[in-house]
Each structure stands twice: as structure tokens, then as C-alpha cells.
């Protein structure tokens, strides 16, 4: 650890500290089909596992694609709330919770969109953050909008010294401007900040701006490739705290 000297820790939120797929699955399962499902899903209030996973994939693909289009300059910036609403309508229609003949079902779509803000923390998250906060200033850095991030933090019990939204940069990670938010707020050189994420793509973006990096393994993350070289690799936040010398 002698070569890694840091003064603040920056955390990704979605997937790293909260189980995003679990929260979305709960919202999807709460949908009640009202028309013939376009994905041949069972016409019952409770979707089976395979149907839920297919709808979850629809959501994830839409968000990933549209955020990528915004970062690439192919679409004007929209906050995560708007993209979540789009994804919710796509999923609700595919689940049969929206009758094509009657148009959109605002209540079903709005309820599903809100599921993106009700995400459970991983079992080690709350205690891990509290432990790390005894030694370092903690900064949350999320693609979630300011409003969504507020609700996410409250629902999952996340405690920060500062929580930053990509909305302030009007783009999304891995655009360098998002990581620059943390550098500016911290008032430190990038190499004195440690970016923690369960997504290798996120860490690569931070690395490109000069931040130090720590990969934390999660079941839903984006694992490093053989060519990735991050500063730390941790099994969970307790392991990360141990490696950082936090008692």
C-alpha cells in the first residue's frame, strides 16, 4: 500500500453499492398484464423468472444504448429520470401492462420508473461506507439524476460527505466531465482520489482522467479483462477497507 496514497474515495452507486437489477425485478414483477404480451410472457400478475429477466434486459439495453448516444453526441442530454421513464414504458408495453389500443397506462409506467430509485443496498454497503468514512471523505458519483440520487440514497441508507450526479455535467459516465466533477469538488489532484466501482468500464473512464482505481466484485458488475490494470481488487467493501488500512 506504500505506493497508493489517497485523500478521498469516490464511489459509483448503481451496481456497486446498490443491487440495481434486484430493484428493477421487483418493479417488473409488480406489473399486471392487461393485454396480450408481446414477449409471450404468462398473462398473470406475477411474471415467471425467464419473463422477468427478458424484461430486465430490455430495460438495461435501452438505458445503456441511450446513455451511449448522449455521450457520443447523437442525442441531446436527458437526465436519468427521463431515460428511466422511456425504459419503463418499453417494458410495460412488452409485459402487456399497457393496452396498445388504449394507449399508455401512466400509473403502471410511473410506478415501474420509480422502481429505479428503490434499489436495495448490498449486504456490506452500509457498514462498509461507515467504516471507510472514519478515514476518508466519501463522494458518491452516479449517472442517476440529482432527484433520483436523493431517493436512492435515502432508500438504501447511503451516507456521504458529498453526492454528485452526472446531471451536473449534462452527460454520463464514462465521459471525463463526470469524473471531473469529483476532482473539482475534492479540490485534489486526480491521483489523490480513489474511484471505486464494480464496472471495469467505469474504472477505465476514471483512470483516463488520472484517478486511482479499485474494482469491487459484485454479481451484476462488469468484470475486468486481462488487459485491465487497476490499483486495487476487492471482494467487498470490508476487503477494500482492509486493503486501505482502515481499522
Short recap of the structure:
This protein is 43% helix and 11% strand. It has 247 residues and is of the alpha/beta class. The longest helix has 23 residues, at 49-71.
Structural description of this entry:
With 247 residues, the chain is an alpha/beta fold. The chain contains 9 helices and 6 strands; from the N terminus they run E-H-H-H-H-H-E-H-E-H-E-H-E-E-H. It has a 6-stranded parallel sheet, sandwiched between helices. Strand 4 (193-197), helix 8 (200-208) and strand 5 (212-216) form a beta-alpha-beta unit. Helix 3 (80-95) packs across helix 4 (106-114). It is globular, with a radius of gyration of 19 Å. Mean pLDDT is 90; it is low at 35-46.
- Whole-number radius of gyration? 19 Å
- Figure out the total of helices: 9
The strand count comes to 6
General form: globular
Helix content: 40-55%
Written as H for each helix and E for each strand, in order along the chain, the element string is: EHHHHHEHEHEHEEH
- Average per-residue pLDDT, rounded, comes to 90
| Strands in their spatial order, largest beta sheet | 3-2-1-4-5-6
Give the CA-CA distance, first to last residue: 15 Å
Strand content: 5-15%
